[in-house]
Structure prediction request, 137 residues.
Amino acid sequence: MDQSPAFQRDLARFKENVLAGLFRERQAREAQQVPADVLRERWRDGLAITIDQGALDPARDAARSDDEVLATVGDTSITWGDAKPRLLVATRRAALSKGATDAAAERRKVLDQLIDVPVMAQRARESGLDQDPAYLQ
Prediction:
């Protein structure tokens, strides 16, 4: 079972999230006074990130397959299946705001948060956090 593609995908996702969490903790200690958007820009600098702008359009959701790629960070893809629950909540939140919030803007915030995980994991690897005892444990 440990060789199944689903298990391997889940394991890789788990490792990415642990590395991203360690990186976020370190960054929080080192840069307490730096705004989040500045940190995000700094972390993303020099990385190949693509976003399918069509991912921001809720009208296309019904026709999407779970394998449809919404964004990439280097070799890591964020698919509709990965993002669906959170993007649907963002769309619903915008609808409930009765025009006060734009669905595309809410979905972009969610996609940015999803993109942050592989970005922070890559930065964590670059800084050697993948050798940290807490991560290895």
Observations:
- DSSP finds five helices and three strands in the chain.
- The helical segments are 5-30, 36-44, 80-96, 103-126, 133-136.
